[in-house]
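re the bet — no i am not wrong, look at it urself. input seq straight from the record:
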Amino acid sequence: MARYTGPTTKIARRFNEPIFGASKALQKKNYGPGQHGRGKRRKQSEYAVQLTEKQKVKYIYGVLERQFRNLFDKAARKHGVTGENLLRYLESRLDNVVYRLGISPTRRGARQLVLHKHVTVNGHVVNIASYSVKPGDVVAVREKSKSLSAITESLAGRSARAYNWLDWNSAELSGTFLSYPERDAIPENIQESLIVELYSK
């Protein structure tokens, strides 16, 4: 399966949530996509609800099925609540950290910056979007890329919202991953317990 690169609004309408950011189209068309989108939806089975939640999280973080399953298995082996561990691992992906720091306005854009070698971790260029950032790691914009318009524009419109597991240094255009986030600090509307139930079948 290839990574999804189609229209994001269509996917957001499928889940009826702005999973890729605020969308005027989602407000105007608050029903599912396609010719049957306006029709009355049948009640979903328990399995369908669980599967939908898993698919939603995969789209939010831009993760493929095998990657997602591997992260789930890793989360299940770790001490603690499996669902919360899973979200912490997803949040520690390099492309997501770049997005959270405001270096890119979207996770898709953050992934592109990482793949095109515009980002460093602890002073070394890393071009693997799924790279797992560890507490204490410093994620920064590569020196040659600091004047890149996509980055400067994103940082200019950077949200004032701060995440307590990240520390941003505006002078150096770098951020430190302080710790794995607590569940209540992750803003996305995710019911991770449904994913755990799905994989536990």
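see?? The domain at 94-179 is CATH 3.10.290.10 (Structural Genomics Hypothetical 15.5 Kd Protein In mrcA-pckA Intergenic Region; Chain A). told u. also Strands lie at 119-121, 124-125, 138-141, 166-169, 174-177. so pay up
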